[in-house]
Amino acid sequence: MATVTNWIDHLSAEEVVGAVYPGAGSTETLLVILGVVFWIGWHVVTNKSESEKLSRLARKRHGANDHKSNVTEW
Amino acid sequence: MTDQLGALTVIFTEFYYWVTVVLMFLIHVGFCMYEVGASRYKHHQHTLMKNTMVIPLVTVTWFFFGWWIYWAFPTGPGIAPSIMNESAALITDESTFSAKWYLANSEFMAVNLGDHISGVFWAAFLLFSWTAASIVSGAIIERITTFAFGILAIAIGSFFWVIDAAWGWHFDGWMLKILGYHDAYASGVIHAIAGGFALGVLIVLGPRIGKFSSSGEPRNIGPRNPWLVTVGLFLIYTGFWGFYAACNIPIFDLGPEYGMEGVTYWTATNIYVTPTTLSGITYNFLMSLSGGLLAGYVVAKGDPFWTYSSGLAGIICASAGNDLYHPIQAMLIGAIGVVIAYKMHYWVERKFKIDDAVGAVAVHGYAGFAGLVICGFVLNGYPSSGYSVGAMWDGSTYASINPLGQFLGAIIMFGVLGMLPGYVIAKILNGFGKLRIPREVEIAGLDYEMMEDDRDAEKAVASSTR
Questions:
Q1: Which of B232, B302, B385, B388 could, after both became Cys, cross-link B33 (CB 3.0–4.6 A)?
Q2: Is residue B61 part of a domain?
Q3: Which residue in the set A29, A35, A66 is minimally distant from B444, CB to CB?
Q4: Which of A57, A68, A74 to mutate to test the interface with B (most CBs of B within 10 A)?
Q5: The domain that contains B74 carries what CATH number?
């Protein structure tokens, strides 16, 4: 996985390769796929939890001033 | 980098953009504070988290596709040929400024010893993207779902504003060539489009419960924490300094770039590669801020919320031409923009029952639109681009700055790429029942359960004996 194991050899090569991250040249597309899955997954998970929370709260039908009894300033 | 002077130039440029990114972070801090200050107590934490999530959502999508769009779309596609390859297709060839290098799986989108600039330039544009999304965020507080806002933030932050930047900001953009569009510090490219997008969303989203009386008269739901709003707006001003610097290229030799044989001319340039100075735009930034504050204090009769916002609107209105204006021109233009934005805000509110909670459509949208149009008159005849000095595109030059081109540009920014997509996407989300929170939740407060948990925890702590 390591792209560089010896900086002296790397920087004194006839043509210095710029990309130095692990897996350079072979893993980028896989990383993008993983990243997109993570991103879309976040929307799916948070959408579900938000919908549940909003439905639960809506069912209780609190009044406009009820939240004042929850203020923790004592 | 083997030549020390060349290395210093590159490292200076890298560091320059990095500093602008850090400064611009304050814009987002300011927007968060501002929104929380403007929202009511029972919605505070939701308001804060909604805008905070702009950071990761726009960042990752900007990495995946936003940055690629900027480099791929200057030609339209299909509207005007590129000066690089004379094709009107998407720019995805092997040329130096091709979008090919900015695909998410490109080796230049990472630590690369051969490229010191892409990452900081990517980040500078990303911070512009956060700003575009954050502008929308403020207008729609207290009633939108986080899910819907996330989709809208990605749409404006990583797609629509980038299209307009490719068209009207990129040195190869078709709007420069055909319309003579000029928008040095983003009156339209960021502000008018984001304001327009917010308006499109607001039309579908509707007002907060209680904003309008049964007879349709608007009620004032003013900021609940004016001091947080104050600090937030001061931070936005501060970040705006970084924004201005980030819109420049700090050091560039225009001689060879313009094809002038034997001429060396090192200077800072604006994003269109026409010369300006950091010193000159500092005059104009401060004078347009002052013009906005002075006018805002008068039209708002000393109301602090509007006076502070007017400072911002003043800068936004003058930004299109602040690379070239005289400071007094900048001041007067800033003042004019504020009057237009303030009057338009209340007229639209009454006429169309639009509840823009923080005046974002006015401060960014109307002031930005007005700034573009004014720029067309004041800078009429100036080159729209550094490349208009020679026959660089299809044997002809870029159009010069002109009033009609600027007016059409303003319509494209505010209406075509802003308001219309905002409206359509909001309609779709609304159709799925995902746009607006339930009425009962809006009345109870989005933070109700969180506050309830805190109260129970506090009671438990208070009643404990050890």
A1: B232
A2: yes
A3: A66
A4: A57
A5: 1.10.3430.10
Q: What are phi and psi of B276, to 5 degrees?
A: -150, -175
A34 CB neighbours in chain B (<8 A) are none
Picking from B241, B46, B55, B36, the residue whose alpha carbon sits closest to that of residue B134 is B55
pLDDT at B73: 97
Range of the domain at B195: 4-454
Quote the CA–CA distance of B201 and B149 in Å, as a whole number: 10
CB of B357 closer than 8 Å to CB of B221: yes
What's residue B455's pLDDT?
87
Q: H helices of B247-352, where? A: 254-257, 278-299, 304-318, 327-352
- What pLDDT digit, counting tens, does each position of A23-56 carry? 999 999 999 999 999 999 999 999 999 999 999 9
Alpha-carbon span A60 to A66, nearest angstrom:
11
In a domain? residue B464: no
Whether residue B462 is contained in a domain is answered as no
| Sign of the four-CA dihedral B389, B327, B312, B118 | positive
Token reading at A39? 């991103």
Residue B159 lies in a domain: yes
Average pLDDT over chain B, rounded to whole?
Answer: 94
Task: For residue A20, give the nearest of B113, B449, B452 by CB distance.
Answer: B113
The neighbouring-strand residues paired with B252 are: B267
> Do the beta carbons of residue B233 and residue B308 sit within 8 Å?
yes
Amino acid letter for position B226? P
The whole-number pLDDT of residue B199 equals 98
Any A CB within 8 A of B158 CB: no
Query: In whole angstroms, what separates CA B181 from the centre of its chain?
Result: 17
Q: For residues B95 and B93, give the distance between their C-alpha atoms in angstroms, rounded to a whole number.
A: 6
Provide the ipTM: 0.93
The string of pLDDT tens digits covering residues B394-433 is 556 788 999 999 999 999 999 999 999 999 999 999 999 9
Return d(Cα B212, Cα B220) in angstroms, integer.
Answer: 9
- DSSP state, B275? E
Q: What is the phi/psi pair of residue B308, to 5°?
A: -60, -45
pTM more than 0.90: yes
What is the domain count for chain B?
1
Average pLDDT (B308-337) is: 98
Give the span between the Cα atoms of B130 and B154, in whole angstroms.
9
Q: Are A74 and B458 in contact (CB < 8 Å)? A: yes
